Input
Amino acid sequence: MNFYEAQAQAGKRSYWLVALFLCITLLIIGLTTLFVVTWLWIDDGGYYNQQAELLEYYTLQRFAWVAVAVCSGLIITAWLKWHEVCRGGAAIADSMGATQVLPATRYAEQRRLLNVTEEMSIAAGIPVPPVYLLTQEAGINAFAAGLRPSDAVVCVSQGALDHLSRDELQGVVAHEISHIFNGDMRLNMRLLVLLHGLMWIGEIGRELLYSRTSVRAKPFGLGLFVIGWTGIAGARVIKAAVGRQREFLADAAAVRLTRNPAGIGGALKAIGSIKSSSRIDNHRCHEASHLFFANINGAAMSLLATHPPLRQRILAIEPNWDGRFSEDRWQKAREHVKEHEGDHKQQVLGAVTTMILSSAVLDVAEISDLDLVSETELPEALVAIAHDAFAARAILPVLLLATDTSLREQQMHMLSGFDPALAEQTEKLTKMLKDVSRGVYLPWVLMAMPALKLQSAEQYRGYKRLLMQLIRADKQIDLFEWCLYQLTGHYCDGHYGIRRRARMLEQSEDDQAGAFERVASMLVWHGRQSDSSGADLERHFNLAASTAGFYNIELLPQQPCAETELKAFSEAVFILAAAGPLLKSRYLKGLVRCARQDGKVSVVERELLTAVAAVMESPLIGLEDQ
Output
């Protein structure tokens, strides 16, 4: 079974479990309504007055009013939690007491964590998410939070930094990165909101039971407490089932990204080897237990465990494992970390090359001996700029500067009017990029995303308007500019609460065929080699179309890359983005095969594929087995 099929099946099973979750919610509402109405009957003296029959007291109007009141409380409580969740993964991490690891940190262990996150994100073809640290947690654990990749964060416990080697930490981060691109985060956030709404009934009961209220109110509080927490227990069983059946998929995706089963396997063994295990002591983390890499209660009861047993997960990765955990694990881990504290390569990602990153991409995007990431080294000076909150703002402007002298002067004037310091930094970067290949631009932009997100919301809105002014300075938009703008908007807007265009309803097959025809034609024309003949281009397009399942479309004539053409192309990408997971995987596989048909994935093709995959919110991995 390939990744997309597993994702689709996991999604179907999860929807059934979520439906069961909603049934439990309705049951709890009904039981609470019945209990409250019965208590009102007792409070009115019905229990002591035989003339007041209970069945006569059960009127539809009375039930309706109580049910509306209970539902209103649940909805308001859930809405308040949803409002918090909508602020993005950073709000979730903050609520759990985590602190952000700044891109410019010089602490060796934190630098190592950032390096690993950068490598795994770029290998997965997504921008680097902000990284948070649970500094007070000694257990080995981590989680990814957010509604979509644009507002996602990765959070790791201090115990993971203390006990894991670099390969093992890479496996854990790859596991969490897989949750970002395979859609688990959105489901997890919804479960978090539903569970929080259910907690309202039990919390009211607890307050009445333990507060200094009248003695008559305590039995009422006890009843609400029992009903509420019984419902929560049932909901947690469902939540645990949802989490368990998705963790194996995330583990497999982590192996795909790292191509090193010993990494995530070693991390799971480490959890079983240390006393603190994967335990998280912060009580604010318990309602979000399903978000984490492993059970936050350590060896939890199997029924309520949000993750499969460690042994099952390890055996799924390493079938020949002998079943033993290392007793001297802690000491070995500390010695390993101390040994590498002075290693400059572990502190600063000096030269990000595809010999590191493509090893995680080869074979999983059906690229075979080809890379989706440039083979050109990213100089250490450019890496440092990507980590600097101020200097990183100049990366996109310098890439958008025109080659024409007069037009470039006009763009620099725009920059000076916006921020003279930014214009000066852009001038410096222009000189630094003279001997740098365009192949490093894409990973450089992806790496700079956390630093760009350190701007205030007002600064970002102005910055984005500036980017559009620079793009339109020549009164047209080319494909590279479209890719940069789409990547920036898609991965930064959500962080600032800016809503992207509404996702389109699923289109007809003819609409999707026309959309794929336009996108594949754009890829063929802009990714062609200088010696490619018309017959070669037709063959590349036909391969893409047949792989995607379309047989009645043709290569469109080459059009000038005007703004109107880019607008139609953008609309086509959004139509493809509205398809289901399996259809999107076919479309992406067709585009990837088209790109590699001439024996080389060019820089333009790589940029276009990454931007299209970002808009479609689909990974460029797991396509090879279809």
About this structure: The two ends are 8 Å apart (CA to CA). The first strand starts at residue 99 and ends at 101. Strands lie at 99-101, 131-134, 142-145, 153-157.
